[in-house]
Specification:
The chain is of the alpha+beta class. The protein has 3 helices and 4 strands, in the order βαββααβ. The chain is globular, with a radius of gyration of 14 Å.
Length: 101
């Protein structure tokens, strides 16, 4: 499994607008082959929101980024002033996973 993260520095005063954009998102990623999970993390002691998507494999993630659904989901880009800096994209392979059962 891989995890893709986008760290987004939201400008002060634009947090509500940012969160509302995600509330109104198209919800297309959930139907993609290989998609596992989406998490949107609100910062407690920083300015960075983190959007995590979990995928079965890297090929599934790349298929998403090349799909018509991806283009549709990202067609209404947010206003530039909502962000205080560039986003930081990272991709990681899960090498260990633990969960309380």
């Amino acid at each position: 499994m891989i995890v893709v993260s986008n760290r987004l520095q939201v400008a002060k005063g634009h947090e509500k607008e940012f969160e509302e954009r995600f509330e109104g998102r198209a919800r297309l990623v959930e139907n993609m082959l290989g998609f596992v999970r989406l998490e949107i993390l609100r910062p407690i002691k920083s300015d960075y929101y983190i959007v995590l998507t979990h995928w079965r494999d890297e090929a599934s993630f790349h298929a998403w980024t090349e799909s018509a659904e991806f283009k549709e989901a990202h067609r209404n880009r947010p206003r530039g002033e909502i962000f205080a800096g560039p986003n930081v994209f990272e991709m990681h392979e899960v090498i260990q996973y633990a969960e309380k059962t």
